[in-house]
Amino acid sequence: MVEFQYSNVEREMEVYGYDAVVKSHCRMCHGGCGVLVYTKNGKVEKIAGDPDCPINHGTLCSKGLASAQLAYHPDRLTYPVKRLGPKGSGRWERISWDEALDTIAERLLQYRDTFGAESVVLGYGTGRENEAVIYRFANLFGTPNVLTAGHFCYGPRIATSILTCGTNPIVDYENHPRCIMVWGNNVVISNPDCYKGEPFSRALDAGAKLIAVDPRLTRIAARADVWLPLRPGTDAALALGMLHVIIEEELYEKDFVENHVHGWEPFVQRVEEYPLDRVEEVTWVPAQKIRDAARLFATTKPAAIQWGVAIEQQVNCADNDRLLMFLMGITGNIDVPGGQVLFKPPGIRNVGHFGAHRMLPDTQREKRLGGDRFRLAGNFAIINPKCVWDAILEEKPYPVKTLFFISSNPLMTRGNAAEVYRALEKVEFMVVSDFFMTPTAEMADIVLPAATWLEMDYIGDFWKRHGYILPRRKVIQVGECRSDHEMLNDLGHRVGQGEHWWDNFEQALDWILEPIGITWQDFKKMDYIRGDLLYQKYETRGFSTPTRKFEIYSTVLESMGYDPLPQYREPPESPYSTPELYRKFPYILITGRRLPGFFHTENRQVPWLRELHRDPVVEIHPDTAMKEGIQEGDWVTIESPRGRVRQRAKFFAGMDPRIVSAEHGWWFPEKEDPGHGWDESNINMLTDNAYKACDPAMGATHVRTLLCRISPEDRS
What we know:
Layout: E1 2-3, H1 10-16, E2 20-25, E3 34-40, E4 43-49, H2 62-65, H3 67-71, E5 81-83, E6 92-94, H4 97-115, E7 120-124, H5 131-141, E8 146-147, H6 155-164, E9 170-171, E10 179-183, H7 187-190, H8 197-205, E11 209-213, H9 219-223, E12 226-228, H10 235-248, H11 254-260, E13 261-262, H12 264-271, H13 276-283, H14 287-299, E14 303-307, H15 317-330, E15 340-341, H16 351-354, H17 362-365, H18 375-379, H19 385-393, E16 402-406, H20 410-413, H21 417-426, E17 429-434, E18 446-449, E19 458-460, E20 468-472, H22 484-494, H23 505-513, H24 520-523, E21 526-530, H25 538-541, E22 550-551, H26 555-559, H27 579-584, E23 587-590, H28 607-610, E24 617-620, H29 622-628, E25 635-640, E26 643-651, E27 659-662, E28 705-712
Parallel strand pairs: 7-8, 7-16, 10-11, 10-14, 11-12, 13-22, 16-17, 17-18, 23-27, 24-26
Antiparallel strand pairs: 1-21, 2-3, 3-4, 5-6, 5-18, 9-15, 19-20, 20-21, 23-28, 24-27, 25-26, 25-28
Helix pairs in contact: 4-22, 6-15, 10-13, 10-14, 10-15, 19-21
């Protein structure tokens, strides 16, 4: 436990006349960054990185710097409202919090009594650290249906790492990896999950070798010792090819394999199905480059893999994650300094405990939507979104009548947006809690004003696997905005869950911290708490798996009826799986490129951040643009078998001419129509969400890779 002391701020406060500075913990994206919040007359005047924070060491991205612009934005929701007129009418009436929560409670109980608790679906998006309270409310209410991004973002990493080695292996930048393989990740922009770009950059500056796996020549790829520009969606084949080299040349750690791996022999047989000539044909990466990368990673110790969500939004989602862990494990880089560490969290009550998962009755758990189809996801309380839309539109396997979305904008973020729109239009009752009137919020019956990270007390990084927790201290109050934690604590009392909630949410924070003998008021005086730092724990304890070993052959997947060994599946749409479609849609479209100022669909109304990127951009190779008659800066039409959108063309020679790269999450808050142009440039108008296009175990929607055609926009 580390007591904090303000340092190097007194002079700045004196020069600029600030009244106070508060240490806190940003949550404008995946969170983790310590900040210093300077205030004057009770308002935030400046936000800077905290040099004493072990996560970001004083660095801060554009989103963190612009947090006050979001908090004080004139279009921000600052009180509850209810809709007047039909959905999407844009007519709203101010109501009190009591009226809002009383109405919500009444409707939830009504639907539970009439159609069963499973007819109510709660949902949340990435970014607010509210998953624990949402699952607690849902489980106590009796609904097994919580709709998250977990089917194709981070959730698969957790699910597959628990199957393989017990917990998510995290890069140990603190102990200087000598080789880093960045796979489907742009950490210097996205700052994902347990990571920030700063320690990665420091590792490279210190001389670490770099392997980049990415279809695009990113800044990271441009700096790499080996760049593997694979065909989008072929990550599993590439990983199996690298494993083929490592096994064939006996570059693996024999002691680890002999003593700590389960399923080695059948795995070797599976890998033999992927010789480099086959892998080169599948991935478009030259065999020698694959061999060079495999040798570099296997022989440079310690080594680590910086992986990202791009490999999870695919039909190969679960196997992609597992294969990267196998690369870490058999090369001897699991739970070693500078490798991929299984960090221990502080001994608090964790997210799973708080979420009250064991309090959901088995009879209700068995009703989880899609649980029989996507069994690995269901085992981790994760559902596929299409299962919800089907239950609304077709009322199968039962009707869903209520949606309650918290910090989520599924109309923009889920595959096949046209189907999402139809479901939101039909559902009988919908509530949204958010900062602004998003396209999803415009479809709701009641909208609640959510608090930003500046307006709440909470235990930051409560859910992560890097071993730290940090205090997020409330700095300001804006209007009637309330944190999701406070809101659900209050709503829980209204629906009969009072014995499982608290008089105020600070008592909940005390309960979380109780096992380590401190209160929230104690924790507020600290910089952070870190779990015990131990390495190679498996030497004495084994791994937290059924066999107590590193499971390359998954006994859990086998028990669920899945292939216990990973394999490669061709993308649902590709030049090889759908050649006739390829003739009509001759380019491979990749989606979801990260941008510095935005976080998925957020921040397009924040001045500093929108100024960084005014329009949605599609990257096109200059040769492709010439072939299609496109000039740089033109608005172009991008089409798939499901629809069309428009984005502005930017020439980019750093990818194969057969590939087009588009941005996701685009809507236009400045447009006055209630939908804010939700379907104009939304790339999910093009993506598919059919079950056959999903990962068979996790239900991950294959939204990253599809076929498209492009043309200059028709202005007639």
